[in-house]
UniProtKB/TrEMBL annotation:
Protein name: Prostacyclin synthase
A cellular-component GO term for this protein: endoplasmic reticulum membrane
Locations listed in the record: Endoplasmic reticulum membrane
Catalytic activity, EC: 5.3.99.4
Cofactor: heme
Origin species: Erinaceus europaeus
Signal sequence bounds: 1-24
Keyword entries, A-Z: Endoplasmic reticulum, Fatty acid biosynthesis, Fatty acid metabolism, Heme, Iron, Isomerase, Lipid biosynthesis, Lipid metabolism, Lyase, Membrane, Metal-binding, Prostaglandin biosynthesis, Prostaglandin metabolism, Signal, Transmembrane, Transmembrane helix
Membrane topology: Single-pass membrane protein
Gene: PTGIS
Amino acid sequence: MSWALLLGLLAALLLLLLLTRRRSRRPGEPPLDVGSIPWLGYALEFGKDAASFLTRMKKKHGDIFTVLVGGRYVTVILDPHSYDAVVWEPRTKLDFHSYAVFLMERIFNVQLPHYNPNDEKAKMKPTLLHRDLQALTEAMYTNLCTVLLGDTTEMGSGWHEMGLFDFSYSFLLRAGFLTLYGVEALPRTPQSQAQDRSHSADVFHTFRQLDLLLPKLARGSLSAGDKDLMCRVKSRLWKLLAPARLASRAHRSSWLESYLLHLEEIGVSEEMRARALVLQLWATQGNMGPAAFWLLLFLLKNPEALAAVRTELEHSLSQEEQPVLQMTTLPQRVLDNLPVLDSVLNESLRLTAAPFITREVMVDLALPMADGREFALRRGDRLLLFPFLSPQRDPEIYTDPEVFRYNRFLNPDGSEKKDFYKDGKRLKNYSMPWGAGHNQCLGRGYAINSIKQFVVLVLTHFDLELISPDVVVPEFDLSRYGFGLMQPEHDVPIRYRLRL
Ligand code: HEM
């Protein structure tokens, strides 16, 4: 037998030993379930349908357990009373960014020298709040008008047909891109707006191709053809968002200015900056459109809810001096005074927002649960909260949790309902579409304003209806982070026309 063959055999034997070596549960640790496939554990089941898998595990082990998923030990917590212990733990113990860095490098091919997420966050945070938030909201309304009203006017009067997901995703992402990354020219002219429409449509269509491939890329299951397409789509996006190309754009957000300055300060190359900007397009624009899709779909499927939103809107707008069709911005006081629409938004996010809240365990630590138990966590493991199952779809907290009830988040006096209970105790985190704690979504103010502006624009300027009113609300594939993946062939056909 040759040496090479012998060495190969030894390596294979060692690998087999490593794969079959099982970790055992130590005293004080959560129940451990490694499944029956060495190393992979439950990776396939988890990847296919995380919600069903975690529901099954919860029945088997209770609301805290550790599972093996593709070589990683993941401790899952499903008791919403205990979430605060995780989301407020300092970064030195439970780290949010390790997974973000993995995503950044593996999915978006971004490597930043001297990358310090805390520093980046400190610089970016102010650009999404207070006066900057107001500027973003105003720009968003103008850009929504440019793409939504402009496109429809260009297409001529009468009914137009498309899928509701495509409708919501494309208009929100295009307006969001123009808001954050800048427009063709200021003051706007009909020509510059036409360019904004075609450029943003190009960005959206290219981005959407990438969006559809990402879950496969994350699972490592791209075919050779997919890989080719992915390469082409990524390089097209890197060109579209190249800093040199963005340099001449007008009315760029302070978010973009600060981000570019930050990249420059840490010495990021021109090429890598373009990649980072594509990653940011996904991080900032990937969820608003899908969230707006679910909201509009629930309204179209629930005439009572739609009528309540319309009545509230008509009442609120009738207090304004200017008719809505002439408004160039929607006053913040209007946006802040729509409790029925807020309840509809909260309810549709409760039903559809499914982020995985993950943290890296940085040191061995004891995790206190709200009921007084304490569990030992091992350094190097991962922690996962999945609020989609509980609180959001927990029958103890919400009666008929699968059902859309537009007024679920309204008190009888019309104010926002915030008291929800589990095990007789009031919940602090009763719905978590934006996460919670140290790493709660920084863009939520901008996202909420944008979704509401979009819905107000659609309801005030358009007739919009389902082509088949009996259409079944589609199931979504949770393999896409956030709001599930919607394949174009499963989209819900609608028709819409500008109201004269
Ligand atoms: C419907 C739209 C959106 C949803 C549902 C959403 C959801 C979330 C969630 C769940 C997290 C926390 C993840 C965790 O704790 O593990 C998060 C974080 C974050 N989001 Fe959003 N997001 C949305 C839109 C936006 C937008 C528009 C922006 C910026 C313009 C943004 C910026 C951020 C940032 C910067 C973080 C990380 C915060 C940190 O580093 O601590 N998000 N988002």
